[in-house]
Structures are given as C-alpha cells and as structure tokens.
C-alpha cells in the first residue's frame, strides 16, 4: 500500500483549500517544509491534560501537516519524513514531552513505515505557552525522493 493509500485507509481526508495568511507548506528544492500546525485541543500538559490527551493532540497536528503537504505536493507518495519538531504546552514539572510527540511520530510511522521513509529525526520540547493556547504544535520537513 502506498503512503497516500495508507493515510486514506486510516481515515484521513484530503481536499483542496484556499490559501490563507501564511503558507502552511512550502517547497524548497527537493524538500517540503511545513509551518507549525497547532492542535485543536487547548490547555497545558501537567496542569489538567494527560499524556494520552497530548498524544492525541500531537496526532491531530500530524494529520493537519499531512493535509498541508498533500495540498502542496498533490500526494503523500514519493516522500520521506526527515525531521519533526514537537512543541508541548507544559508546566515546568512536566517531563514527558517525548511521549506526547510520539502521537505525531507514530502516525508518520504508520503511513510511511517506521523502518523506511517514516524513520525521522525529532525534537520534543516543552514551552510555557503556545499560540491560541494550543496543547501541542508540530512542524515537519519532508524530502521529495527521486
């Protein structure tokens, strides 16, 4: 199954949208660089939100990124995930940012393969606050193969 087919089999829907204020994904040479995509979930990890909720929020961010990549590239096929940056709105005491961002990484592994094109470098960082009070923000870089 191709990455596009795999994403659709997982329930992701893809449709063209009108450009907004910022470019959500831009091509530079053979790379696609996404903007940060924030979760629909608002709040702070370690102060009311659980790791499981944060995991789902990170997955939500990755779904949005994939839609933006599709919008720019026309397909998820022929891509390799290079780098993921995950930002977690968290308290000073919260130290499980990496477990939260696994929500994004696990989705990318499911679509592109954990040992193949989905095997990526990653950073998972804690932040005092994120735009709009989002629980998680994720950005990614993809390589266009071939």
Low-confidence stretches: none
Order of helices and strands: HEEEHEHEE
Share of residues in strands: 25-35%
- Name the helicity range: 25-40%
Tell me what the CATH architecture is.
2-Layer Sandwich
Shape: globular
> How would you characterize the largest beta sheet?
6 strands, mixed
Helix/strand class:
alpha+beta
Mean pLDDT: 97
CATH topology: 60s Ribosomal Protein L30, Chain: A
CATH class placement? Alpha Beta
How many domains, as an integer?
A: 1
Total count of helical runs of at least 4 residues: 3
If you compute it from the alpha carbons, what radius of gyration comes out, rounded to the nearest whole angstrom? 15 Å
CATH level 4 superfamily: RutC-like
**What is the CA–CA distance across the termini?**
19 Å
Number of strands: 6
Characterise this structure:
- With 146 residues, the chain is α+β, with helices and mostly antiparallel strands.
- The chain has one domain: 2-Layer Sandwich (60s Ribosomal Protein L30, Chain: A), CATH 3.30.1330.40.
- 35% of the residues lie in helices and 25% in strands.
- It has three helices and six strands, in the order αβββαβαββ.
- Strands 1, 2, 3, 4, 5 and 6 form a six-stranded mixed beta sheet that branches.
- Helix 2 crosses helix 3.
- The longest helix has 23 residues.
- The radius of gyration is 15 Å and the shape is globular.
- The two termini are 19 Å apart.
- The mean pLDDT is 97.
Tags for this model:
globular, 3 helices, 146 residues, 25% strand, 60s Ribosomal Protein L30, Chain: A, alpha+beta
């Amino acid at each position: 199954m191709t990455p596009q087919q795999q994403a659709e089999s997982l329930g992701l829907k893809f449709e063209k949208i009108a450009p907004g204020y910022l470019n959500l994904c831009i091509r530079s040479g053979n790379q696609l660089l996404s903007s940060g995509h924030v979760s629909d979930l608002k709040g702070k990890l370690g102060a009311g939100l659980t790791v499981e909720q944060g995991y789902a929020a990170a997955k939500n961010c990755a779904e949005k990124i994939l839609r933006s990549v599709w919008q720019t590239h026309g397909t998820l096929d022929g891509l390799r995930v290079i780098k993921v940056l995950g930002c977690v709105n968290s308290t000073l005491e919260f130290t499980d940012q990496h477990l939260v961002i696994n929500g994004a990484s696990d989705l990318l592994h499911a679509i592109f393969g954990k040992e193949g094109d989905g095997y990526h470098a990653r950073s998972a960082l804690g932040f005092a606050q994120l735009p709009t009070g989002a629980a998680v923000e994720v950005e990614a870089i993809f390589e266009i193969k071939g």
